[in-house]
Release factor glutamine methyltransferase
Amino acid sequence: MNTPQEVTADALLRASPLPALETRILLMHVLGWRRTELITRGDQALDAARVTAYRALEARRAAGEPIAQLVGAREFFGLDFEVTPDVLIPRPETELLVETALAAMAGIAQPRVLDLGTGSGAIAVAIASVRPDARVWAVDRSPGALAVAARNAATLLDAERPGGALSFVEGSWYSTLDAALHFDVIVSNPPYIANGDPHLDQGDLRFEPRGALTDEADGLTCLRAIVEGAPAHLVAGGVLWMEHGYDQAAAVRALLDARGFAEVASKRDLAGIERISGGRLHGI
Ligand code: GLN
């Protein structure tokens, strides 16, 4: 029997102001338990320190902090990425960008891949995990983000992969890349939310790096810069694919058309929204 001052996971679940799923995630994180242990050990008295730690996370979640930041991780493309307040939290719809990049390099041995604005490294590491032969460069202007991306690459990729370690480059888009580098595939999930968009003041976005979310302008500034600089860094026949906002597909296709890209197209995410657009550089 538990004495009255002993606290159990069952009791914390009953008392939590959070949705049950969120309470379970925080409990599993603090206790180091699997989901089934929440059931089999739910009536077990918990260490006071664990209870205190749980209650601190519960309060922070109730104040709006993202679950991914509280537990320090988010699953993306089947991999468990470290997440900190320095990086955008990987979103499931971004897996479409990874799948599209992988399809574009399907027939190419040792493809060269560039991820612009890599953040947590989710896109670059996911691609590298499926294509061990790919040589992957990942750019970010944020040293904090690059540190997270480098840790994710070290944790999630085989140190002996034939494509070698990822190359991390600090800088803005192409500005600090070796001009001699030409890529088979360029991908990016840049900041594309327009200044003043109410979503910036809602939910998880309030706690994510603002510079990863918005260009503080019309939402297209970064997409323009990426399209503009791409031809100088693509091989003939190379492709560029970018994620963008739900209402930006036509504008991004127009940017690609104007820059001379062929096969310009958009793809819909699982919600049916045109979420990524891309094209192929003439030359093959
Ligand atoms: N997809 C994110 C959101 O709307 C934004 C990510 C981005 O700006 N690249 O929540």
Remarks:
- The first helix runs from residue 9 to 15.
- The mean pLDDT is 97.
- Strands lie at 73-76, 79-82, 112-116, 135-140, 167-170, 183-188, 234-243, 262-268, 274-280.
- The pocket of glutamine is lined by residues 88, 91, 189-193, 205, 213 (CB under 6 Å).
